[in-house]
Amino acid sequence: MRVMSQLRWKSLARALWGGAILGIFLLACSGGPNDGLELFKAGRYQKSLPVLRAEAEQGRVASRTALATQYYLGLGTPRDLALAAHHFEIAARAGDALAQLNLGVLHLNGWGAKQSRADAFGWFQAAADAGNSRALDYLATLTDKLTPNQMTVSRDRVRAMLDPDRAEAEGRP
User: Fold this and answer.
1) Which candidate in 24, 82, 154, 161 could, as Cys together with 118 as Cys, close a disulfide (CB 3.0–4.6 Å)?
2) Spatial separation of the C-alpha atoms in residues 84 and 20, rounded to whole Å
3) Under a CB-based contact definition with an 8 Å cutoff, are residues 81 and 112 in contact?
4) pLDDT score for 30
5) What's the pTM?
6) How far is C-alpha 92 from the geometric centre of its chain's CA atoms?
7) What is the mean pLDDT of the chain?
8) Helices and strands (H, E) in the chain, number of each type
9) What domains can you pick out in the chain, each with its CATH number?
10) Nearest Cα to 123, choosing from 165, 89, 147?
Protein backbone atom coordinates (compact mmCIF):
# COMPACT_ATOMS: atom_id res chain seq x y z
CA MET A 1 0.00 0.00 0.00
CA ARG A 2 2.79 2.40 0.98
CA VAL A 3 4.73 1.60 -2.24
CA MET A 4 1.58 2.31 -4.28
CA SER A 5 1.15 5.68 -2.54
CA GLN A 6 4.78 6.63 -3.21
CA LEU A 7 4.38 5.73 -6.90
CA ARG A 8 1.30 7.96 -7.16
CA TRP A 9 3.16 10.89 -5.59
CA LYS A 10 6.12 10.41 -7.92
CA SER A 11 3.80 10.32 -10.93
CA LEU A 12 2.03 13.43 -9.71
CA ALA A 13 5.36 15.20 -9.14
CA ARG A 14 6.54 14.30 -12.66
CA ALA A 15 3.28 15.54 -14.15
CA LEU A 16 3.46 18.82 -12.23
CA TRP A 17 7.12 19.33 -13.19
CA GLY A 18 6.30 18.62 -16.84
CA GLY A 19 3.35 21.00 -16.64
CA ALA A 20 5.57 23.70 -15.12
CA ILE A 21 8.10 23.32 -17.94
CA LEU A 22 5.33 23.47 -20.53
CA GLY A 23 3.85 26.54 -18.83
CA ILE A 24 7.21 28.33 -18.85
CA PHE A 25 7.72 27.42 -22.50
CA LEU A 26 4.26 28.69 -23.49
CA LEU A 27 4.81 31.89 -21.52
CA ALA A 28 8.11 32.47 -23.32
CA CYS A 29 6.51 31.87 -26.72
CA SER A 30 3.51 34.08 -26.08
CA GLY A 31 5.61 37.17 -25.71
CA GLY A 32 5.23 39.46 -22.77
CA PRO A 33 3.48 42.66 -21.92
CA ASN A 34 5.39 44.37 -24.76
CA ASP A 35 4.31 41.84 -27.38
CA GLY A 36 2.51 43.66 -30.20
CA LEU A 37 -0.51 41.36 -30.21
CA GLU A 38 -0.89 41.63 -26.43
CA LEU A 39 -0.72 45.42 -26.64
CA PHE A 40 -3.24 45.36 -29.50
CA LYS A 41 -5.64 43.09 -27.60
CA ALA A 42 -5.33 45.33 -24.54
CA GLY A 43 -6.37 48.34 -26.63
CA ARG A 44 -3.00 50.06 -26.32
CA TYR A 45 -2.95 50.97 -30.01
CA GLN A 46 -0.38 53.77 -29.92
CA LYS A 47 2.14 51.44 -28.27
CA SER A 48 1.26 48.41 -30.35
CA LEU A 49 1.72 50.10 -33.74
CA PRO A 50 5.56 50.25 -33.84
CA VAL A 51 5.86 46.84 -32.18
CA LEU A 52 3.45 45.24 -34.67
CA ARG A 53 5.30 46.92 -37.55
CA ALA A 54 8.60 45.40 -36.39
CA GLU A 55 7.03 41.96 -35.81
CA ALA A 56 5.35 42.07 -39.22
CA GLU A 57 8.67 42.86 -40.90
CA GLN A 58 10.12 39.79 -39.14
CA GLY A 59 7.44 37.65 -40.80
CA ARG A 60 4.93 37.27 -37.96
CA VAL A 61 1.66 36.89 -39.89
CA ALA A 62 -0.73 37.49 -36.97
CA SER A 63 1.09 40.75 -36.23
CA ARG A 64 0.75 41.75 -39.89
CA THR A 65 -3.02 41.16 -39.72
CA ALA A 66 -3.32 43.16 -36.47
CA LEU A 67 -1.29 45.98 -38.04
CA ALA A 68 -3.56 46.00 -41.09
CA THR A 69 -6.58 46.11 -38.77
CA GLN A 70 -5.16 49.17 -37.03
CA TYR A 71 -4.78 50.96 -40.37
CA TYR A 72 -8.20 49.75 -41.52
CA LEU A 73 -10.00 51.05 -38.43
CA GLY A 74 -7.69 53.98 -37.65
CA LEU A 75 -6.70 52.65 -34.24
CA GLY A 76 -3.74 54.60 -32.87
CA THR A 77 -3.03 55.98 -36.34
CA PRO A 78 -4.93 57.86 -39.03
CA ARG A 79 -7.13 55.53 -41.09
CA ASP A 80 -5.28 54.42 -44.22
CA LEU A 81 -7.20 51.91 -46.33
CA ALA A 82 -4.46 51.55 -48.96
CA LEU A 83 -1.93 50.63 -46.28
CA ALA A 84 -4.48 48.29 -44.68
CA ALA A 85 -5.00 46.57 -48.05
CA HIS A 86 -1.23 46.25 -48.51
CA HIS A 87 -0.74 44.56 -45.14
CA PHE A 88 -3.88 42.42 -45.43
CA GLU A 89 -2.65 41.16 -48.80
CA ILE A 90 0.74 40.13 -47.41
CA ALA A 91 -0.94 38.27 -44.53
CA ALA A 92 -3.60 36.82 -46.86
CA ARG A 93 -0.93 35.42 -49.20
CA ALA A 94 0.69 33.84 -46.13
CA GLY A 95 -2.58 32.01 -45.48
CA ASP A 96 -4.20 34.08 -42.71
CA ALA A 97 -7.97 33.48 -43.04
CA LEU A 98 -8.96 36.72 -41.30
CA ALA A 99 -6.70 38.73 -43.61
CA GLN A 100 -8.19 36.91 -46.61
CA LEU A 101 -11.70 37.80 -45.46
CA ASN A 102 -10.81 41.45 -44.85
CA LEU A 103 -8.98 41.75 -48.16
CA GLY A 104 -12.12 40.42 -49.84
CA VAL A 105 -14.20 43.12 -48.10
CA LEU A 106 -11.76 45.81 -49.27
CA HIS A 107 -11.97 44.58 -52.88
CA LEU A 108 -15.74 44.24 -52.72
CA ASN A 109 -16.14 47.87 -51.66
CA GLY A 110 -13.13 49.39 -53.40
CA TRP A 111 -11.65 50.57 -50.12
CA GLY A 112 -7.90 50.95 -50.54
CA ALA A 113 -7.91 48.27 -53.25
CA LYS A 114 -9.29 47.92 -56.77
CA GLN A 115 -13.04 47.38 -56.59
CA SER A 116 -13.66 43.95 -58.02
CA ARG A 117 -16.34 41.43 -57.16
CA ALA A 118 -14.27 38.72 -58.81
CA ASP A 119 -11.18 39.46 -56.70
CA ALA A 120 -13.37 39.68 -53.61
CA PHE A 121 -14.89 36.28 -54.46
CA GLY A 122 -11.44 34.71 -54.79
CA TRP A 123 -10.33 35.98 -51.37
CA PHE A 124 -13.63 35.00 -49.73
CA GLN A 125 -13.22 31.51 -51.19
CA ALA A 126 -9.67 31.30 -49.81
CA ALA A 127 -10.91 32.44 -46.39
CA ALA A 128 -13.71 29.87 -46.46
CA ASP A 129 -11.24 27.15 -47.50
CA ALA A 130 -9.06 28.18 -44.53
CA GLY A 131 -12.01 27.76 -42.15
CA ASN A 132 -13.45 31.28 -41.86
CA SER A 133 -17.21 30.69 -41.71
CA ARG A 134 -18.08 34.39 -42.16
CA ALA A 135 -16.65 34.17 -45.67
CA LEU A 136 -19.50 31.83 -46.63
CA ASP A 137 -22.03 34.66 -46.23
CA TYR A 138 -20.06 36.85 -48.62
CA LEU A 139 -19.72 33.98 -51.10
CA ALA A 140 -23.48 33.43 -51.03
CA THR A 141 -24.10 37.11 -51.86
CA LEU A 142 -21.64 37.14 -54.73
CA THR A 143 -22.61 33.83 -56.32
CA ASP A 144 -25.55 35.30 -58.24
CA LYS A 145 -23.55 38.40 -59.27
CA LEU A 146 -20.73 36.56 -61.05
CA THR A 147 -20.66 34.09 -63.90
CA PRO A 148 -19.33 30.60 -63.22
CA ASN A 149 -16.31 31.44 -65.37
CA GLN A 150 -15.56 34.60 -63.33
CA MET A 151 -15.76 32.59 -60.12
CA THR A 152 -13.44 29.87 -61.45
CA VAL A 153 -10.86 32.31 -62.81
CA SER A 154 -10.88 34.35 -59.60
CA ARG A 155 -10.61 31.28 -57.38
CA ASP A 156 -7.71 29.92 -59.48
CA ARG A 157 -5.91 33.29 -59.49
CA VAL A 158 -6.00 33.50 -55.68
CA ARG A 159 -5.02 29.86 -55.27
CA ALA A 160 -2.05 30.51 -57.57
CA MET A 161 -0.99 33.39 -55.31
CA LEU A 162 -1.26 31.15 -52.27
CA ASP A 163 0.59 28.20 -53.86
CA PRO A 164 2.61 29.32 -56.91
CA ASP A 165 4.48 26.00 -57.22
CA ARG A 166 1.25 24.03 -57.53
CA ALA A 167 -0.17 26.51 -60.05
CA GLU A 168 2.95 26.19 -62.20
CA ALA A 169 2.80 22.38 -62.04
CA GLU A 170 -0.84 22.50 -63.15
CA GLY A 171 0.02 24.90 -65.98
CA ARG A 172 -1.94 27.83 -64.56
CA PRO A 173 -0.63 31.40 -64.61
Assistant:
1) 154
2) 40
3) yes
4) 47
5) 0.73
6) 7
7) 80
8) 10, 0
9) 32-164 (1.25.40.10)
10) 89
